[in-house]
Amino acid sequence: MEGLEPGFYAYLASKHQLRAYLLGAGLDEKTAHAAFRQRFVARSAATFIWAAVSYRSVWRYGQRAYRYMHLDAGHVCAHLYLAVQGLGCGCCAVAAYDDDELNSLLGLDGKDEFAIYLAAVGKLGK
């Protein structure tokens, strides 16, 4: 993407802004490695990673919150599929990844904050 350094960015919904989370080259390769070495993850234009902060939902929904977090990530990812189509791009959701490796890469503890889904986005091959 133009104007953005390679790295991880957090989307701040309340401000509709991106915040640099972790910058540096090689994070695409590390992300692909965590995704069981799926090469298309490293070659994507952008990879979206959804993470959950459990206390935000558990206080209200108890154990069902974990189901809702995953359902919500699925809904958001489905909308990403629709949005990228309008740009002439493709999307591939990925649920196959090493939880501990991806959480560690993102600086998440894996218990109270954890990655729950990711999707690679890029140009469609011809």
Q: How would you summarize the topology of this molecule?
A:
Blueprint: E1 7-12, E2 17-23, H1 27-34, H2 39-43, E3 46-53, H3 55-61, H4 64-85, E4 89-94, H5 99-106, E5 113-123
Antiparallel strand pairs: 1-2, 3-5, 4-5
Helix pairs in contact: 3-4
Task: Write a compact overview of the structure shown.
The chain has 126 residues and is of the alpha+beta class. Helix content is 40%, strand content 30%. The chain has helices spanning 27-34, 39-43, 55-61, 64-85, 99-106; strands at 7-12, 17-23, 46-53, 89-94, 113-123.
Care to describe what's here?
This protein has one domain: NADH Oxidase, CATH 3.40.109. The chain is globular and about 45 Å long. By secondary structure, it is an alpha+beta fold. β1 and β2 form a beta hairpin. The chain is built from 5 helices and 5 strands, in the order ββααβααβαβ. The two termini are 21 Å apart. The strands form 2 sheets. A 3-stranded antiparallel sheet has the order 3-5-4, sandwiched between helices. α3 crosses α4.
